[in-house]
Amino acid sequence: MHRSGFVNIIGNPNVGKSTLMNAFVGEKLSIITSKAQTTRHRILGIVNGDNFQVVFSDTPGIIKPAYQLQQSMMDFVKTAFEDADVLLYLVEIGEKGLKDEVLFRKIENSTVPVLVLLNKIDTATQETLEEQMAHWQQLLPRAEIHPLSALENFNVKEVFHRIVELLPESPPYYPKDQLTDRPERFFVNETIREKILQHYQKEIPYAVEVETEEFIEDEKIIRIRAIIMVERDSQKGIIIGHRGSALKKVGVAARVDLEKFFEKQVHIELYVKVNKDWRSKTNQLKRFGYQ
Questions:
Q1: Is the pTM of the predicted complex or chain greater than 0.85?
Q2: Is residue 146 part of a domain?
């Protein structure tokens, strides 16, 4: 008997969805920072065994959209309800519910198995943990409640085994050697964007999109040319920094991670361009894969 299915992870921002996805997959597919809205796309991570294939899906954190980009991000979340075989609702200690009441009702009325994963339990006392588990069981009586720590890898393996048990009988959806549905350039873009989120403050990271224009792989080295898009000239100056110092830091940090990811030497060139108000333009959002 072979089991396969889509296991979709949803939750509010900053609950650790990307950390959990990477823990399940065993690879860093989703970027991780302490800032909200780090995840913008729906990213698949595929885990294969002899008799199963789990297709995990990491979605953006649930927010109330303020502009077109954020609306597109929430559209990715809605699609996660449509094709899920198992739904993982990730919450953290002290959290009371989703920011979107309509989506919470969808979880409540889900026809597929729902696992409420209570994350960051390493920060809680036993008494608090028991109170929280009772709270969520009362809110979602048909769901299974599982405590874990994605960061500390506590109870992750046990939850994974439970997920496999809940999958329907099915042949694999993807080739058994495939890790994700995204191309290499996507991970280049996301790695650079992660470093921008880590190195810059306020609005700058959210006004940025990255596009890899050139990805040339030789036997020993990968040569990458990427464009960092910003919305205004003032943002361009901040990204570049004094004599290019800030941009250089981003490039060095991205190269280190990309060399680990591709297991090969990487040469990276970064350029900054102004793409005025791209976050609110439908044609630009389509170009960057948000539509």
A1: no
A2: yes
